[in-house]
Design a protein that fits this description.
438 residues, alpha+beta, Fumarate Reductase Cytochrome B subunit, Rieske Iron-sulfur Protein, 2 domains, five-stranded antiparallel sheet, 52% helix, 11% strand, elongated
């Protein structure tokens, strides 16, 4: 209920108010959405606060936009460890740069009498939200490591689900509280834009591109002549011709140097026969992978039982991977009682696949963020990023003729037994009815 309120209802309310509220204010109060610059009242503090704030937030927003619009490209770049470390370090540094600028601007607005005279309550609310948002971002960069790597698989799909009107909070349901607070703070920030001076961000002076050129006339000819000297018409014409020729020659050289790249960008590179063959093989491999996944889905849709393996093949130290009815990875072990032990392999932190090797303490490892899960109970270790246990799955054991010998529900209730000598041919299955009930 809370997730639906904060991550579904609040985003749509914020987007609606931001878009239509901004349009309404621009149309009804066209002279009220200025930035109301206070530079004339006090400029020194503004420079020391505004400059680091704008530099830091511009680069951070550009990185967020790239990760949102092209998550595949972002993930391929971040997959390199050196680049990941660089992005994380730069992001943390820019966050502190933004905080420094905001603190200077906040102190300036609270201590200068001239600035206080033009400060509204909404200005203070905006400063508080910005400090909260940037502070949470810095805390995430410091506490939740490698956020730039897992954001493309969590927050990016969530944002796309909101924009495509198919809200899905499952991508962020397991995220840390800091990340969730960062997301909520962003929606609150959007919500207040139409009611604050932040609306000036949307006032892009596009008419400047098509308006007639302006002829600026100096109002004091004597002062102009004293500072600039007499204007020599012939010299001005000569400078104009020289500048025009320089621009023309430079543009020609630039076009010659970049024409090939521009042509290849719009019309595509010319591949050799070998490269075309490799590209077709890659596409075929991806298509076969998709076909294989669809076959698994079809099999699980039609069959009441899916074979996991023979009972005597299961091991207590090395589990066997399989795909359950929900198309999620799971692992099959042999328990201490000699019966199967089936456990989900999807980490409850961020959904990574858990390893199938049991250590000396009876635990399996999630390599993404180092969470250890007890095989018997499914519980993670106390200081693990994952907080919820891995769920167990029910199973059914049949003989070679399809007769049910024993079964166990996901809750651990076992019925039936395996007679001596039947273990060699006993087969372990997962049942659709058991998973649907779970």
């Amino acid at each position: 209920m809370t997730d639906s309120l904060l991550f579904v209802a609040l985003p749509y309310l914020a987007l609606f108010v931001c878009i239509f509220g901004s349009i309404y204010r621009i149309r009804t109060e066209p002279f009220s959405y200025s930035s109301l610059s206070s530079q004339f009242l006090e400029s020194r503090g503004l420079m020391w606060g505004s400059l680091p704030w704008h530099i830091g937030i511009t680069i951070i927003l550009l990185a967020h936009i790239v990760a949102f619009l092209v998550p595949g490209l972002w993930q391929s770049l971040i997959s390199h460890h050196a680049l990941l470390m660089t992005v994380e370090a730069i992001g943390l540094g820019l966050a502190f740069l933004c905080l420094l600028g905001l603190i200077v601007l906040a102190i300036r607005r609270l201590t200068s009498a001239k600035i206080q005279a033009v400060t509204s309550t909404m200005d203070l609310v905006v400063i508080f939200l910005l400090l909260l948002q940037v502070g949470l971002g810095a805390a995430i960069a410091a506490q939740c490591k490698w956020g730039s790597a897992w954001c493309s698989g969590t927050t990016t799909p969530y944002l796309w689900s909101i924009l495509t009107f198919q809200p899905d909070t499952s991508h962020i349901s397991d995220l840390p509280v800091l990340v969730k607070a960062h997301i909520v703070s962003a929606w609150l920030f959007l919500l207040v834009i139409p009611f604050s001076r932040l609306l000036h961000m949307f006032a892009v002076p596009l008419e400047y591109l098509v308006r007639p050129p302006q002829n600026v006339v100096w109002t004091n000819p004597r002062r102009f002549e004293a500072e600039q000297g007499p204007l020599v018409v012939e010299q001005a014409r000569r400078y104009f011709v020289q500048g025009f020729l320089g621009i023309a020659v430079g543009g020609f050289l630039l076009s010659v140097g970049t024409f090939g790249k521009i042509f290849s960008f719009f019309f595509g590179p010319r591949l050799s026969r070998k490269e075309e063959t490799e590209l077709m093989e890659l596409r075929l491999t991806r298509l076969q992978s998709t076909v294989g996944q669809r076959k698994l889905e079809l099999e699980r849709q039609a069959a009441n039982y899916i074979l996991v393996g023979l009972l005597h093949e299961l091991s207590a130290e090395s589990g066997k991977y399989f795909i359950d009815y929900k198309m999620q990875p799971a692992i099959a072990f042999k328990g201490k009682d000699g019966l199967p032990l089936l456990i989900s392999a999807k980490c409850t932190h961020l959904g990574c696949t858990v390893g199938n090797k049991v250590d000396g303490q009876g635990k399996i490892l999630c390599p993404c963020h180092v969470s250890y899960f007890d095989v018997e109970s499914g519980q993670p270790n106390a200081d693990a990023p994952a907080k919820a246990p891995l769920p167990h799955l029910g199973w059914v054991i049949m003989d070679e003729r399809g007769k049910v010998l024993a079964s166990r529900t996901a809750g651990g209730e076992t019925t039936g037994a395996i007679a001596s000598g039947a273990e060699a041919t006993a087969r372990v299955y997962i049942a659709k009815s058991s998973e649907e009930g779970a």
